[in-house]
Each structure stands twice: as structure tokens, then as C-alpha cells.
Design a protein that fits this description.
By secondary structure, this protein is mainly α. Helix content is 72%, strand content 4%. A hairpin with a 2-residue loop joins β1 and β2. The longest helix has 26 residues. It is globular.
């Protein structure tokens, strides 16, 4: 039992580091920094680590990205909603494709809509410059790119039986 917890904690730290370093390779769209690596990390953690760890990875990487100036406050709704739905769906279905759809929906729709009040209240963007749904498209682009790559990464991890070490 302790061995599994240690493996999950170690993988969590590695995934957080990957998300933080990967956020240096972001691209701006409509005032948000799109970081597809975060979505790869969200899906990998959903499949390998389970709910508590996956949400911890999403929150921790968003926090560190913000503290280092590599992201904005929009990183929180952009990663946590996706990670939550991805892990929830994977836990219920054990289907990677459904988990990916959960990440895409959670990030682009729920995260995108939640980003609107954060952008107005905390980032000082006037509501006359953006609409309620302004962040859906950039969040969708970011999560779509990350989801495609995560499908490749997880397929490789399954072929090499690495995923069996975390169950």
C-alpha cells in the first residue's frame, strides 16, 4: 500500500514538473495562454493516479505556473474542470476516449465559461471587450491539441505495461 502511494506521489511530482516546464511552450489566444501540455498531464494523471491525485496535480501545476509568471489565473478553471471530468469519467468507464472527451468538455466549456468572471474581476479585462463565451474557443484549441498527444502517450504507456504499476 505504501509502495503504491509513493509511486503515485512521485508520478504526481513528475507530472507537475512536466506541466510547469511545458507551459513555457504556450501560445496566446484572446488574452489566455494556451498550454496544451497541461491537458496531456491532466489526462495522464486521470488515467494513472485517480481523483485526488489528478486534481492535486491540476491545482498544483496551475499554482506554480502562476507563481512563476508562466500562466494567468485562467489556468485554474482551464485545468481543474478538465481534470475533474476526465478522472470522473475514466473512473466510471475505464475508457480513454470518454476521458479525453471529459477533458475537452470540462476545459473548453466549463473552464471557458468560468474564466469569464475571473478575467473581469481579477485580470481587469473590461466586460465590454469580451463576451461570456470568449474563452471557450481558445480553451478548446489548447485542450484539443493536448488531448490528441495524450492519446498517443497513454497508448504507448499501455503497450509497455507501465500503467499496470499504478493500479
Amino acid at each position: 500500500m505504501k509502495d503504491i502511494k509513493l509511486k503515485k506521489l512521485t508520478l504526481s511530482a513528475i507530472l507537475i514538473a512536466i506541466a510547469v516546464v511545458g507551459s513555457m511552450f504556450s501560445f496566446p489566444i484572446f488574452g489566455s495562454k494556451c498550454a496544451p501540455i497541461q491537458h496531456i498531464v491532466n489526462i495522464v494523471s486521470a488515467v494513472t493516479l485517480g481523483p485526488i491525485y489528478a486534481l492535486g496535480v491540476a491545482f498544483s501545476s496551475s499554482l506554480i505556473r502562476n507563481l512563476l509568471g508562466l500562466g494567468t489565473l485562467l489556468a485554474f478553471p482551464g485545468s481543474i474542470f478538465g481534470a475533474f471530468l476526465s478522472v470522473l469519467i475514466y473512473k466510471k468507464t475505464k475508457n480513454l476516449n470518454f476521458s479525453i472527451l471529459g477533458e475537452v468538455f470540462g476545459t473548453s466549456i466549463l473552464g471557458g465559461l468560468s474564466a469569464y468572471p475571473i478575467a473581469i474581476k481579477f485580470l481587469g479585462i473590461p466586460n465590454s471587450k469580451i463576451s461570456f463565451y470568449s474563452f471557450i474557443i481558445p480553451f478548446f484549441i489548447s485542450t484539443f491539441v493536448g488531448s490528441i498527444v495524450s492519446d498517443i502517450v497513454i497508448s504507448y504507456l499501455k503497450k509497455t505495461n507501465i500503467l499496470n504499476n499504478f493500479n
